[in-house]
Write a structure and sequence with these properties.
- The chain is of the alpha/beta class and about 500 residues long.
- The protein contains 15 helices and 23 strands.
- Among the domains are: about 190 residues, FAD/NAD(P)-binding domain, CATH 3.50.50.60; about 80 residues, no CATH class.
- Helix 2 crosses helix 10.
- The longest helix is centred in the C-terminal third of the chain and has 18 residues.
- It starts with 5 loop residues before the first helix and ends with a helix.
- Pathway: Plant hormone metabolism; auxin biosynthesis.
- Belongs to the tryptophan 2-monooxygenase family.
Length: about 500
């Protein structure tokens, strides 16, 4: 590929909204939203009082929450500051040739797991394909490329050097993957759990400030297992709770990866089409008044301030947005702490379009893990599209220059570099996104941290109910988002 000018080389996948400066005024609005067409499942409509609900945020959580609410017979309006709905669920087609596409956000989902997400897949009859980006992988470690088998050998050598596993660990690993070794020591604690959303009050509260490494030691873990599992800085309560959730959802067995043919944004598009003009885009929430009998939201639309009132607010906004919104009366201190301290992964996703599957000339794979500051992983996407061209997805830390990512790829590619025929680059830096700053939220597994965040992160306050992927018990993207959405819809319906 010849030299390309920077302005032509880096394409922006998302068009930012255009700010408009207009005189400020205040309008008062009332709901005039009609119920959805009579093609919804009437069995889900409740017989209780119809409620007026404002949904803050039109990401997948806000969309699915609003959709569940209208199916239950409630009046809904959705406000989102962006000019598009879908939030972090973003599929890109523009800028790619021959029908190729890629998912800049929400790249895959699993089975088992994603129960509420699969509900929508089946209801909307969306075509699903297996996702193979973790298969036949090469990983670069200390400047050497390792196959999965070579990594397994390296792992086994390390175990031997550490003295080997004990008899109970060896027996367990005969029928379980090594990645699930922690379950041997954590499963005995599962019996006391009855609700995957409640880790407290079941007799383990004291374990919040005990490192999980002590649980392994107490269970008789070998030196090898203790070294592999670590956990000196991870709360035992948090580790046990998260392991229980994975176990309940089937993640401690083998699971498969999938994606929606044509891009995962097809699901949010389906939700959005059913909500129609109930979604008001370009409407930034400025203030929330949490009253005893209702909630009032002030927002800005084309520079003009407006107000709307409802019975409840389903707040599916990220904490990064909530920090900028005035809420009266002030929320409890534990909520403010969450807004100020919750952190999100910062990732740049880069799509390379190539003229061919050039790596096949080198008899190698394109599922590569680089462990490089400018390039973590790369793999092929949209491989079902009938074209000789290919789209490749790369991950890098937030703020990474895509030109540097391409340089790293060329430098470290395990085949003949002259075969690389990349012709196009698209980039989405989530750390720089005005509306969806960052990706999945960080956990709160440090010693003594869990009670600072949980369950306050999801607890309603007055007429405000809190949703979004960051409010679920396990932050797995679209699974967490749809879980929280269904929870909030049920809370408001039953309020």
């Amino acid at each position: 590929m010849g030299q390309i000018e920077r302005r032509d080389f880096i394409k922006k996948a998302v068009v930012g909204s255009i700010g408009t400066i207009l005189p400020y005024g205040v309008d008062n609005e009332v709901f005039d939203v009609k119920l959805p067409p009579e093609n919804h499942d009437k069995t889900q409509i409740t017989a209780g009082k119809k409620k007026k609900v404002i949904v803050g945020g039109a990401g997948i959580s806000g969309l699915s929450c609003a959709y569940e609410l209208i199916k239950k017979g409630h009046e809904v309006i959705v406000l989102d500051a962006s000019g598009r709905y879908g939030g972090a669920v973003l599929s890109v087609h523009d800028g790619l040739a021959d029908g190729l596409y890629a998912d800049f956000g929400a790249e895959n989902f699993t089975r088992p797991g994603y129960k509420n997400y699969w509900k929508y897949i089946e209801e909307f009859n969306l075509p699903v394909l297996p996702y193979f980006h973790r298969e036949n992988r090469l990983t670069r470690i200390d400047n050497i490329w390792y196959t999965d088998e070579m990594q397994k050998e390296k792992y086994e050598q390390r175990i031997k050097q550490l003295g080997g596993f004990n008899k109970s660990e060896s027996r367990y690993l005969e029928s379980n993957p090594s990645s699930n070794l922690e379950m041997l020591y954590l499963k005995p604690y599962f019996d006391k759990f009855s609700d995957e959303y409640q880790p407290f009050g079941i007799g383990y509260d004291h374990l919040e400030k005990v490192p999980v490494s002590e649980i392994y030691k107490k269970g008789g873990a070998s030196n090898a297992a203790s070294s592999i599992l670590g956990g000196n800085n991870t709360s035992a309560l948090y580790a046990i709770w998260q392991a229980y959730i994975r176990h309940k959802r089937g993640y401690d067995d083998d699971f498969e990866l999938f994606h929606i043919k044509g891009g995962n944004q097809r699901l949010t598009n389906e939700l959005g089409s059913r909500l129609g003009t109930r979604i008001k885009l370009g409407c930034k929430i400025l203030e929330i008044k949490n009253g005893e009998t209702g909630v009032t939201v002030k927002y800005r639309e084309f520079g003009k301030e407006k107000e709307i009132s409802a019975d409840y607010l389903a707040c599916c906004l990220r904490t990064t947005a909530l920090r900028t919104i005035k809420i009266t009366p002030q929320l409890p201190d534990e909520k403010i702490f969450i807004f100020d301290n919750l952190a999100y992964d910062q990732t740049t996703r880069i799509v390379f379009q190539a003229r061919s599957k050039f790596w096949l000339k080198d008899n190698t794979t394109i599922n590569l893990t680089f462990n490089h500051p400018a390039l973590r992983t790369i793999w092929e996407v949209a491989d079902e599209v009938d074209t000789k061209r290919v789209s490749l997805m790369a991950k890098a830390p937030g703020g990474t220059n895509p030109l540097r990512t391409l340089e790293a790829f060329r430098e470290l590619y395990p085949g003949n570099r002259s075969n690389i025929d990349i012709e196009q680059v698209l980039v989405k830096d989530w750390s720089a996104d005005e509306f969806v700053n960052g990706c999945e939220r960080h956990g709160f597994g440090g010693l003594g941290e869990l009670s600072k965040f949980w369950p306050h992160i999801m607890t309603p306050h007055g007429r405000i109910h809190f949703g979004g992927a960051h409010t679920d018990n396990r932050s797995w993207g679209m699974e967490a988002a749809t879980n929280s959405a269904n929870r909030v819809a049920l809370e408001i319906d039953q309020a």
